[in-house]
Amino acid sequence: MFALAVLLEFPLGCGILILYLFLFPVISGSRSAPTPFSLASPGPHGIIPAKRMNHIVYIIGASGSGKTSLALRLARIAHVIHTDQLALIAAMRLCPFCKPGSAGDWGLWQALLQHTSAIEALHYSFLQSHSICLSFQGPIIIEGTILVWEQWRAALRASLAMAGVDMSRESFLWLDPSPEKIHRNILERARGNEAQLSLDQVQESCLRYSNLVLDQPFDKHCSSSRLEQVIQGLVGAPETGRG
After folding, report:
1. Does the predicted model carry a pTM greater than 0.85?
2. Domain membership of residue 136 as a residue range
């Protein structure tokens, strides 16, 4: 029944991929549930990482909201982690059928978290791309569309904890410009098939995303420049004078 439900809910290619993520560990019999991680867990070389204080800033927003561009502008004052890219690398580690074009498939992200080795794959993808976090003691900005789900934030926390990062100080921010602004951004970047999206489709997508954010602890900001100033204030960096 589960297999039938998956195939009916998602397109055929995605359905096969999600079934693989769920069933491969059962078929192979070689994977077991991962051991819960803690700050006292040894790292990949058997070394227990030192506990450090970092201010973690989460930035969420619908695709095209400008959160990645904002995070890149702030890279001079913080270490930046692009979660959507990181999760895609983890998915490709777990499943050979996962392709870069799967990045916009929300069903894939939710299914990936159910895989018995999802956290482990995410962590090693994190170490591969962000080994600087092992010694970095400044603020860390984590941006991504999928961070709207608490499960993904928890998965990122597990990876950071394994690297010895202390998440006792966290800020949750939502970049939410108008659908018209998002539509212009999408047309300008012309990523994949996004350039074919109409304004009505973008408005519908923004509404779905807004519903996911409801009742979550994110401070909403409609202006990228204003949010940049807010983040600079949070991490104690001087403002650049942007309008």
Report:
1. no
2. 55-235
Instruction: Please give the order of strands across the beta sheet that includes 219-221.
Output: 79-82, 140-143, 52-60, 165-175, 219-221
Total domains present in the chain: 1
**Is residue 12 situated within a structural domain?**
no
155-191: per-residue pLDDT in tens? Answer: 888 878 877 777 778 999 999 999 999 999 999 987 7
Q: Which residues contact 56 (CB under 8 A, 6 or more apart)?
A: 139, 140, 142, 160, 165, 167, 169, 170, 171
Residue with tokens 């202006």: 223
Q: Is residue 202 part of a domain?
A: yes
Per-residue H/E/C for the chain: CHHHHHHHHCCHHHHHHHHHHHHHHHHHCCCCCCCCCCCCCCCCCCCCCCCEEEEEEEEECCCCCCHHHHHHHHHHCCEEEEHHHHHHHHHHHHCCCCCHHHHHCHHHHHHHCCCCCHHHHHHHHHHHHCHHHHCCCCCEEEECHHHHCHHHHHHHHHHHHHCCEEEEEEEEEEECCCHHHHHHHHHHHCCCCHHHCCHHHHHHHHHHHHHHHCCCCCEEECCHHHHHHHHHHHHCCCCCCCC
Query: Which structure tokens are listed for 179?
Result: 């659908």
Any domain includes 37 = no
Mean pLDDT throughout 88-104?
Answer: 66
pLDDT at 85: 78
CATH number of the domain that residue 185 is part of: 3.40.50.300
Instruction: Specify if 8 maps to a domain.
Output: no
